[in-house]
Every structure is written in structure tokens, then in C-alpha cells.
Predict the structure.
Amino acid sequence: MPNIQAQPLSAFISQILESAGARSDYAEIVAEHLVQANLSGHDSHGVIRCPHYVRSIEKGQLQPAALPELVAESASMAQICGNWTFGQVIARQGTELAIEKARAQGIGLASLYHVGHTGRLGTYAEMGAEAGMAAMLWDGCIGGPRSIVQPLYGTGRKLGANPIAMGFPSAARGAVILDFATSISAAGKVMVAVDKGERLPGNWIVDGNWQPTSDPTQLAQGGALRPLGLPYAGHKGYALALMVGLFSLMASLPSDAQPPLEDRWGTVILMIDIARFGALELFQRQVDTLIDFLKADPLAGEVLYPGEPEARQRRARLAHGIELPAATWREITACAEGLGIKPPA
């Protein structure tokens, strides 16, 4: 497995995206986001996505230099049409705008539509937490070409993976971050399993006949992801996915695309200024105290808080480099060479 340091990897990915037609600032934002996902241990949302973005640009599905449009705005809300450019660029802009409005009004909300893949949703929750906010995000769809999840007891790819994310700041522990798909697995984790030649747990996906399978290649051959919580509480994951999809439908309401057949992916970003409730520093110290309380008296192993595994991975991979599956690296380098770019040594 190739081992690459974060900085040269980010520069390489940025060069690929810019050569594919991206604005230079967009290329840098997306490359940084992808590499940060790898550093956090979420290879499913990392540089494995780069060749897919290039293919989407070549097909005209992703507009790599399009400017977003502020469709509507009030003191506490903003609605942004991304005009089909990189989701990471527009989600970062929306997060910054929601934080700005929350500082002014106590609460800030940004909704996004007509955007590409937004990447790791936890990144934006981390941005909010680092700004002293309580953050919540919903991202997904019901129907349309990006749906990839089977409804509970049903057939067809009818829901997006529809992730949710939340974030809170602490004083010494860093950001406390929840970020997960409402399917058992994100699609990107299946992509990583394909590149590693690994099998999946048998309840993650179904094949084209809607039967459970451990073969990750079946997802791209007409299969689907399954709702979070199976086999015992799949109704909870399905219901969460549906509700995230309705938030997303609301966010994309100005779109003229008609569900369920057309793309109505949308994102809602909510920021709440914790300082409006009392001293931020006091809250952060109290979060640390509660984490210590949770970690005390472990029964087996170690008690972790949400976001701690990512923080540990980040420290380790910054020090020792990012290992990529050989198949992932081959696909990225082939993509680069097709654009006339020489891969780093």
C-alpha cells in the first residue's frame, strides 16, 4: 500500500482537479477536504473520490468553475444554489455563512441545493464546533439518481445514504463530533472494500435481486445499501433516512427538478451560538468533565467519545503518512496521467 504524506497528496489532488477544469481555489478546497477525510480515518470520503469527480466533470454532471448563487437571505437564514459545482466548496461557504449569522442572531441556517458530493459531513460540524457553535447538519435525498439505499422491507434504490452530523466544542478534548450515514454503511466504505479486495459484513448491502451479500462489487452492479440498524432496528435507520430526505427536499425547494425521479439532493446546515445560553468557556469545561465521567470505570477496553477516533487517526496519519490501497492509487495516478500530470514519487 503506498504511503503518502498529507501535503504532497493534497497538492497532487489539487493539480488533478485544476487540470480537469476546476478553478484553482475550488481545487485547493476540495483537495484539502479529501485529504483531511483520509487523515481522519474516513478513506471512504477521501482521495478515492477524485477520479469519480473527474469523470463527473467529463460527463458534464459537475461544473468545476460555476459560481454559486445566493437565492434568498434573511438575518438568520440563507439559501444557496450551487449551480452544480463542488459540494465541498458550497458546503464550506454555507457553513461559514451559518456561523456568521448565528454570531449575529444566535441561530444561523444555510440550505444548499444543486451541488455535487458534499464529502465528509463531519468536517462542517467541526468548523461549527471550533467557532463555539452547536452544529447540526442533514444531507441527502429521496429518489433521484443519487439514491442508493433500499427502503426497509422494500426493493429499489430509493433513498440516499442521507448522513446526519452534530458537533459541540470542548475545552481540552477538541470537537465532539457525530457523523454517520443512515444506511448501515456509507457507499464510500464499500468502494474502499472493493479496492482492498475485502468482503463486507453480510448485512451491509443487497445484490440486484435484493438479497444480502458480502460481495462489495455487487453495489455497483445494481445492488443497494441497507438501512441503519438491521437486523434488529432497521426501522429506526429507515425512519431517520426518510426524515433527512425531507429536510433535504425542503432545502432544495427552489429546484425545478421533480421528485422522485430527478435529483433533489439538498443540505441543511444549522448553527447555534452557545454563548447565547451562558459562558462558552464554562460549557466547554463542562463538556470535558462529562467526557471524563463517561470514561471512568470502563467495563472492557476503553470508553471513547464521538470524534475521538478521528482525532487519534489524524495525529497518527500526520506523523506517519496516509496509506492508500494499491488499487485506489492506481486509479488516481491513471486519472492524473490522462490529464498529463506526473504522479509524485
